[in-house]
Amino acid sequence: MPTRTKKSPPPVRWRVAVVDLHGDLPRRHPDLANVKVSLTVKDPARIADHRDDLAPKRAFVDRKKAAKLRDALIVRLRDRGYTVNGNLEVYSLYVIELDPSAASDHRGYLYVGQTAIDPAIRVEQHRTGHWIRGKPAHSRTAHRLFVRRRPDMEPARVYFSREEGMRAESRLRRRLEARGYRVEGGTERLDQP
Description:
Layout: E1 14-20, E2 34-40, E3 59-60, H1 63-80, E4 83-84, E5 92-98, E6 109-115, H2 119-128, E7 131-132, E8 135-136, H3 140-145, E9 146-149, H4 162-178, E10 182-184
Parallel strand pairs: 2-4, 6-10
Antiparallel strand pairs: 1-2, 1-3, 5-6, 5-9, 7-8
């Protein structure tokens, strides 16, 4: 007599869902959506407000591979300016005027930085000599030679990734040096355009 074998259920297929969040929610960029990116075993096409234009089409049996794709998609969407999973972080540049007597052979002496917090707060941290867990979270040169913040020299634009902010900081440093200023900071990405 033949034995019956149970058929195993089909493997679970993991997908990445991108859902448009409506309402009066804050956004990193006013023209780009506020979205939630997550893993699901449901067919994303059946999820209300699913963004097919932003979501990958692939499905995975391996949850780790799906999670890796989800994480990469989150970074990619954030770098484009989307508000993803409630993260509102943007990067701004700031310029601090330093004591010009320390650079008498230049037009002036400046410090250039980039931050994900309010630039006014970050400048104040340099001025007061802010420490975190026993380590300085300020430029010692900017702290020692601080004169004032120079918002007139700062670009109004915000940057959606730390890397983009560091490149902009480097470009600002080079522009100010070309105008005859001695500049501290902004060296992390000097080798890249």
